[in-house]
């Protein structure tokens, strides 16, 4: 039976008609002019771009820039894809065969596990434990990985919790994979979105010989509309992934290749990540200030990275009904926790302009006040 992609299914049905959208998982998008301002270039410099197919595997200069972000990688290790979503699809269709199993961390972005389930693959999940700060249950990991495990899927930093795997957690994942010869697929789209003064999260590439690292321009760079992603894999595996890429999309777009090449220039790249960090840090502070008006009704494990977090609420209403009411009554959208197997939670994206954040959060707080049964001025009984 086909497994729908719960998060994207819910967003597709609801995100276009609301006044306030806090469901996206990246930083506030850039305008095209802003990208060119960061690059010190005129938009007219693209006027002579031939709108033909680019190199199917990705523009060579772009693949070299991507490879430079990974230790000892070269252009032949890189395949440019239509977002990280295509990269996940290619990995599932290339690596997984009938009788295989995979292991995923939960909560997590369920696209790769969903692809696997739709191929008839058994997916085992290992919890990140909220009460312990969303840390990995290593004992459960070791229990779930077995001789049929073909790949382990991790998202680091994690979507939706913002947890960054510690070196001990990464060592446990590598040891579990190595024990059975499994691949590790590392979705690293939130590297560069760390809160505070944390260093950029290191890639798993180079720490184990069977790693596929996936990334895109959508989250840390604020360029989701480019639909440019990539995977980095052992060079001998790239042709197998490439052949399936030709079936799926043929290639990413010429403009996506050209604009991503600009964005990943060594003079531009750090400006984009610095912008992301400013939005992430100020946005999370604003979120916590606004949630404080309902002291005791919300709880949040502060994310170590990413533009979002998981908010737990103490109300007698499940997450699906809560978010449906929020859309219908307040024209405001968040992601219901049940999309991640978390009841009485929602995912909230806060790396947004402050006035927008405050006005939208006021609507959420108003609904919470109504459900809790006290006045909308937030005075507790």
CATH third-tier fold name of the largest domain: Aspartate Aminotransferase, domain 2
Order of helical and strand elements: HEHHEHEHEEHEHEEEHHHEEHEEEH
Strand content: 15-25%
Overall pLDDT confidence: 95
* CATH-derived architecture of the largest domain: 3-Layer(aba) Sandwich
The fourth-level CATH homologous superfamily of the largest domain is: Type I PLP-dependent aspartate aminotransferase-like (Major domain)
Identify the CATH class of the largest domain.
Answer: Alpha Beta
Describe the structure.
The protein has 381 residues and is α/β, with parallel strands linked by helices. It folds into two domains: 6-30 and 270-372, Alpha-Beta Complex (Aspartate Aminotransferase, domain 1); 48-265, Type I PLP-dependent aspartate aminotransferase-like (Major domain) (Aspartate Aminotransferase, domain 2, 3-Layer(aba) Sandwich). The chain is 37% helix and 17% strand. It has helices spanning 6-14, 32-39, 60-67, 83-95, 111-118, 138-144, 167-180, 238-248, 254-263, 269-291, 319-330, 354-372; strands at 20-21, 78-82, 101-106, 122-129, 135-136, 149-155, 183-187, 211-216, 228-232, 298-300, 308-313, 332-333, 335-336, 345-349. Strands 2-9-8-7-6-3-4-5 form an eight-stranded mixed sheet, with helices on both faces. It has a four-stranded antiparallel sheet with strand order 10-11-14-13. Helix 10 (269-291) packs parallel to helix 12. The longest helix has 23 residues, at 269-291. The N and C termini lie far apart (49 Å). Residues 375-381 have low confidence and may be disordered.
């Amino acid at each position: 039976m086909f497994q729908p992609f719960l998060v994207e299914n819910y967003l597709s049905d609801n995100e276009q008609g609301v006044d306030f959208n806090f469901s996206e998982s990246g930083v506030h998008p850039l305008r095209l002019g802003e990208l060119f301002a960061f690059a010190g270039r005129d938009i007219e410099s693209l006027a002579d771009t031939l709108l033909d197919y680019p190199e199917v595997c990705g523009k060579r200069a772009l693949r070299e820039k991507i490879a430079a972000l990974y230790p000892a990688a070269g252009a032949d290790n890189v395949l440019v894809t239509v977002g990280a979503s295509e990269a996940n699809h290619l990995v599932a269709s290339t690596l997984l065969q009938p009788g295989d199993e995979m292991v995923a961390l939960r909560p997590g972005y369920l696209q790769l596990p969903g692809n696997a389930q739709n191929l008839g693959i058994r997916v085992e999940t290992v919890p990140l434990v909220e009460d312990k700060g969303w840390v990995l249950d290593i004992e459960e990991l070791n229990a779930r990985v077995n001789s049929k495990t073909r790949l382990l899927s991790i998202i680091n930093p994690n979507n939706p919790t913002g947890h960054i795997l510690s070196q001990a957690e990464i060592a446990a994942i590598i040891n579990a994979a190595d024990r059975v010869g499994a691949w590790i697929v590392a979705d690293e789209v939130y590297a560069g979105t760390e809160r505070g003064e944390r260093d950029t999260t290191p890639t798993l590439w180079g720490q184990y010989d069977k790693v596929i690292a996936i990334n895109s321009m959508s989250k840390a760079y604020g360029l989701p509309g480019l639909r440019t992603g990539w995977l980095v894999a052992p060079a001998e595996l790239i042709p197998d992934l490439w052949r399936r890429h030709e079936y799926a999309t043929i290639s990413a777009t010429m403009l996506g290749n050209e604009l991503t090449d600009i964005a990943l220039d060594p003079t531009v790249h750090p400006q984009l990540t610095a912008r992301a960090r400013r939005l992430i840090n100020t946005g999370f502070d604003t979120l916590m200030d606004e949630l404080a008006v309902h002291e005791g009704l919300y709880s949040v494990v502060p994310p170590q990275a990413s533009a979002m977090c998981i908010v737990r609420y103490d109300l007698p209403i499940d997450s699906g009904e809560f978010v449906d009411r929020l859309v219908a009554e307040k024209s405001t959208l968040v992601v219901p926790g049940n999309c991640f197997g978390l009841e009485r939670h929602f995912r909230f994206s806060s790396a947004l302009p402050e006035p927008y954040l405050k006005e939208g959060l006021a609507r959420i707080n108003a609904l919470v006040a109504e459900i809790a049964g006290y006045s909308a001025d937030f005075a507790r009984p």
